[in-house]
Amino acid sequence: MKHYKLRSRISLELVDKDEWSIWSSWGINEKNECKKEESIGCYDCRAPGMGRRDILPYNIKPKFELEEVPLENYKIKRYLLGVPEGADDIFENKAFPIESCLDYMGGINFYKGCYIGQELTTRIYHTGVVRKRIVPISFYNPNDSPPSILEYNPSLKFCFPVQATTIVREDSREKSVGKFCSGIGNIGLGLMRLDNVFNQSEQDKYIIHHIDHNNNNHIIGVKPFHPWWSKKHIKQ
Q1: CB–CB of 43/103 below 8 Å?
Q2: 150-190 pLDDT tens trace
């Protein structure tokens, strides 16, 4: 990271994991916040409903009157809102910031210069031509009808492929419509062609076809859903 800070007047230091911890809290209001002297944090602006993010000393918990849940619940919430995070969801060394929806989540400053990929990112932004983005997806048995709503079902389990496995249209041509990013249970994230998200008909079915390390064949149905930013945010 020190290599990329250029002339910025900041200092970076690697701390042990038992010094600080990061908490995500949702279902809170302005009256139910950590005091400024107790934490470093802010509201998570990546998507409506993401709540707060706070950094606290490792041995201190947020003083919110909320139930503490496993980290898995945070991942489920992110997937339902279409919020990618880190290399588990975003293709390493291959992803474009705008295709990862960082422009909608406050992650790109189009007025700042001197960063890697600036020219291409700015050109995509000003032309408005974005054909693919990461969106929430639901998995189902391809012999069943696609789900009509996006919801997490803990009783459904699937054998997921490696990241970036192609998602194809279920027909004789098997044309690519996107790539698998990550999943948990019956939901996940996919880098999908927007035409296949917003113009999907009832007859259109998408699948992932892969073979696991035991040489077992798997076919998983995939249904993309409109993310929170919706179609009106896309420049035509």
Answers
A1: no
A2: 999 999 999 999 999 999 999 878 899 999 999 999 999 99
Instruction: Classify 51 in phi/psi space as left (phi over 0), alpha (psi -120 to 50) or beta.
Output: left
CA distance 123 to 34: 40
Q: Give 85: exposed, middle or buried? Use CB within 10 Å, 0-12, 13-18, 19+.
A: middle
SS3 97: coil
Q: Each residue of 55-79: pLDDT tens digit?
A: 999 988 887 778 899 999 999 999 9
Residues in Cβ contact with 216 at an 8 Å cutoff, skipping those fewer than 6 apart: 159
Regarding pTM above 0.85, the answer is: yes
Q: Are residues 146 and 209 in the same domain?
A: yes
Are 36 and 127 in a shared domain? no
> Would residue 9 count as lying in a domain?
no
